[in-house]
Amino acid sequence: MASLTLTLLATSAVCMSAAPVHAEEAVGIIGKNDWLFYRHEWANSADMAATNTSVDLIKSFSQALQENGITLVVAMVPLKARIYQAYVPEQNKLNPYMAGNYQRMAQALSSAGVKVVDLNTSFLQSAKNRPDKHLYFRLDSHWTPTGALLAAETVASSIDADAAMKNQLRQIPAEKYNMRWSEQAIATVSRDLVTQLPKGAPAYAPEYVLDAEITKASSGSNLLGDASTPMISLVGSSYSKPWTRFPDFLKFALQKDVLAIAVGADQGSWVGMETYLRDDAFQNTPPKFLIWEMPERDMRAPPAFLYREARYRSDNQEWLQRVSTMVQMQCRPAAASAKFTGPGAREAQRAQFARTSASDYASLQFSQAVDAQDYLLASISASNNNAAQNLGLEVMKGDASAKKWNITINADGAAHTLKIALPAGGKAYTALKIWPGETAGLTISDVKLCRLPAHMSK
């Protein structure tokens, strides 16, 4: 199994993932010796507060995973401008904040017990010791196959150096993967920075790099079509897309199967992680290791980041509330219970519609007021030509609407796990309305109210 297609909206290869630059400033920066850089890598101490928010969210998320038997491994992709700062133009030299921010974040996460892979140190050492082996494309913001392989090897060595993780990895079935490098360098089409240069910038000839192919030894075929479910998942950015080779290199470095999910910069890492956790791939078979690849530059853009598209933006605490809910492996019964009333109600814990329209909804009444520490667990099946279905949710306080929001489900007619976190910080919720939209059939069953551990609802 090489990758997983989730219910995600279309992504773009490059998107504004940091505060906007001035209109006269191009996103691409022309460096020395035909090296190009990405302006959104540049940061300063004004970004520290937002960065610390991201660090704190990851700390809490890691704890929630650990309490449910899953080890989070964080792999931040270091700034290209730091690794190859010798090629950065004089007017764009790194400031002290940029120079030390990676280690500051890594230390903050590690001190809280989060497993962090130090890609920054391994990349700096490699760039110094093997300057001819470029870890990033000159004309693109992404890592080369050489850089992706080093990242994968660093992940593997970090796990091997940690006794607990090493023992845990041994319990995952081994696979045999082989690697073969191309005999000649090939022209690459990876040149996202070329299209973002200032007007009048020079033309750049194609960049040539060595590529590699990973094959599974047992079958001698490519990596597609494995029937087994991997116990290691990779959730990442465009640096984890198949063309970068990073997912395949992880399989080779670990000699284990890896389920890979990657999203573009427009949605961002927080949306990507939440979408994976909601999917059957996680809910039915949660991994033992969850590797989270995230560009260092995106750490200053937490879920509520102002310059992200509104549809991908979320309250920081509510993001944490939702992902903490989705990783719960057991239901701790809440003091209250829930039952369906009104149209569609068949039993206390089951609602069923032969067909629904935009005006139909299922109503769940709570036996007593609940708060944000409670969440709903149920099974849901909807039919709508296997399409992604937008599920509208509305939590009530008496007759008044407290909040409305949406989630996406698979409308393929099969039963899927449904976990609904109630809005963070709220109290005295009395009911929940579920608006399925137009479907050819809807069933919600086995409804339970569960409760998060107290420290997860703060």
From TrEMBL:
<keyword id="KW-0732">Signal</keyword>
<feature type="domain" description="AlgX/AlgJ SGNH hydrolase-like">
    <location>
        <begin position="30"/>
        <end position="296"/>
    </location>
</feature>
<feature type="signal peptide">
    <location>
        <begin position="1"/>
        <end position="23"/>
    </location>
</feature>
<keyword id="KW-0574">Periplasm</keyword>
<dbReference type="GO" id="GO:0016740">
    <property type="term" value="F:transferase activity"/>
</dbReference>
<dbReference type="Pfam" id="PF16822">
    <property type="entry name" value="ALGX"/>
</dbReference>
<keyword id="KW-0016">Alginate biosynthesis</keyword>
<dbReference type="GO" id="GO:0016788">
    <property type="term" value="F:hydrolase activity, acting on ester bonds"/>
</dbReference>
<dbReference type="InterPro" id="IPR031811">
    <property type="entry name" value="ALGX/ALGJ_SGNH-like"/>
</dbReference>
<dbReference type="GO" id="GO:0042121">
    <property type="term" value="P:alginic acid biosynthetic process"/>
</dbReference>
<protein>
    <submittedName>
        <fullName>Alginate O-acetyltransferase complex protein AlgJ</fullName>
    </submittedName>
</protein>
<keyword id="KW-0808">Transferase</keyword>
<comment type="pathway">
    <text>Glycan biosynthesis; alginate biosynthesis.</text>
</comment>
<dbReference type="InterPro" id="IPR036514">
    <property type="entry name" value="SGNH_hydro_sf"/>
</dbReference>
<dbReference type="GO" id="GO:0042597">
    <property type="term" value="C:periplasmic space"/>
</dbReference>
